[in-house]
Amino acid sequence: MATYLEQLETPVPIVDLDRLAFNLDRMAAYATLHGLRLRPHVKTHKSPRIAAEQLRLGAGGLTCATLREAEVMAEVCDDLLVAYPPVGAARLERLARLPSTVKVGVAADDGDAMPALAVAAKLSRRVFDVYVEADMGMHRVGLATPEKAVALARQVSDLSSLNFAGLLFYPGHIREPMTEQSQPLAVLSAQLARYLEALDDAGLPAKIVSGGSTPAAWRFHEVHGVTEVRPGTYVYNDRTTANIGACDWDDCALTVLATVVSVAVKGQAVVDAGAKALGREPLRAEGDGYGALLDRPDVVVSRMSEEHGILDLSKTAWRPRLGDQVRIVPNHVCIVVHLFDEIVGVRGHAVETRWPVAARGRGPAYDLAPEGPSRPRAV
Amino acid sequence: MATYLEQLETPVPIVDLDRLAFNLDRMAAYATLHGLRLRPHVKTHKSPRIAAEQLRLGAGGLTCATLREAEVMAEVCDDLLVAYPPVGAARLERLARLPSTVKVGVAADDGDAMPALAVAAKLSRRVFDVYVEADMGMHRVGLATPEKAVALARQVSDLSSLNFAGLLFYPGHIREPMTEQSQPLAVLSAQLARYLEALDDAGLPAKIVSGGSTPAAWRFHEVHGVTEVRPGTYVYNDRTTANIGACDWDDCALTVLATVVSVAVKGQAVVDAGAKALGREPLRAEGDGYGALLDRPDVVVSRMSEEHGILDLSKTAWRPRLGDQVRIVPNHVCIVVHLFDEIVGVRGHAVETRWPVAARGRGPAYDLAPEGPSRPRAV
Predict the structure, then answer these.
(1) Cβ–Cβ below 8 Å for A362 and B340
(2) Complex prediction ipTM
(3) Which of B102, B128, B287, B370 lies deepest, with the highest CB count within 10 Å?
């Protein structure tokens, strides 16, 4: 017997499977068209099922942030980039214990971390690819000058268990509407050229130049020298992606299904999706609130408690009734996925499938301690 | 062999067991001293282990928000208040399926939800206690006038499977330093008096008057008529609780242990606790950032990505090294607990115990579907 949306318990993240398929196809096609290697970031979906589909559509490897993600993704992929500083004994141990069939890459911005990383690579009987990370203006991690990047590349080259694979950056500060003339991308191109020239001059050419993110993804072919992109959000998209123009509203594949649980206070309706279901992420674009209704984007979640979301009804004549269901497009979908254990896949109003957010959490996916909470799940 | 903080993989939430014990004792003593029934909200800890300790120290029942919380807490408690609107078939079914030994209470603010709630109570072969919820100024849920509260209380009284148990409110809007003269509490007392008088006049006296929250908890004996308090955060406390003066900084029992993973960008250090470990909760008090270091409260997490937290070093001469560990007091601890599967209990620098966040998640704790992700865990 089929299950329909109306029968689902809320709050629950639901994914429109047709939209997901379209989003996966679209990015794969973009990368193919422009000869860019697509190495999607799995932080958004944390699901081997979706990663496998990305690979089937031509992705050349995956990007991870946590070791949990890498361990789970090793089930479906043998080329993993951990785009996160390899610092801390536990992180290095888990890196070394990744299945021997996996080609391991890491991003790095500090020479002090290289000796221990080299030891971890040796213990795992393989060579780790090291991507030297540059700061192109986001000011989060990464080296600030071409000279520093060259020095780190040289240090890496001198260690036998490490291979200088290329240059990596994350342009998270670039979030502009796709329709406008791209001044920030021109600036980025010029910055990048200085790094690449310095590496060339030092006899350490960057074979891979890895950039990309969903907001800027569709224009990365304009950034000269880039060979690889690492978008994550594009699989589901969200309100920020749509509002900056990097996808259409109808490309938002993941919504949080919620139920109206109170209409007692005038001018608002309360749904059962609060900060523990939506996260408290700002909209990184024009607009306010923590999410908007899929079918009524003018109705936003204006306030939240842990388990309550307040729909502001001041700009609409619509008056929901107690028990009505709504679908909320979250501001930042990667946070929403991290808040749930399971995703429900729907086709129209019918529930078609469910899958675990298998790479959620922190614990090791293998060698589970007896009391550990993070038993690996069937995918 | 003992394990020490330094050996833990980060990010991880760690609880100072001595501080936890002090916090539990302090609230229990306050309630006893003032003859208030303590019905702690489990949303903060989501752990039957801590709930059992609260009960051992004299708590008269527990408060839950989600049905998952109620199901897990039923293992240790037979008197549960679900302080959440009983709306939606799935929520009602799970309410009805709570073990028959459990006395079930629910908060309500809408008569339209009562017929279905009465049916659920009948199906579960028991009488549900209904607490009529009033809005005392937070404007989230709750009835805005004494007349509406009386009408709902009467409707409840007329249904044989429901019992009008009393009046409930959540004073989440009251967050004031404990040391100042409490104007908001005086206003609250006056508001409450009008509700209680109206119920008395209608021949429907509120036997229980349930209020309370951690920020205002220590002064609830000043609010005339209140018989029960429902604080949650006090078990762990957090930066907001400390900064409004409802606890001392040294009463913050839960911190997120994190590792410095990058010092490449000037004036800052990056730790591996970002929005997926700390949440993006505002400080509801004076100050900025998303958390502060336990040992250096002047160093705050000023920016975050999903897995990166940026420590602002502009106001300190302290310069951490790559690989250093820090302990972060989060702005809002209830959100942090919801982000992890497991809590580590420490005594000084030694790891003493670990426990699962057993009531995390959404799925049923019993009658697990074959593919369900939320298998109940040993406590």
Answers:
(1) yes
(2) 0.94
(3) B128
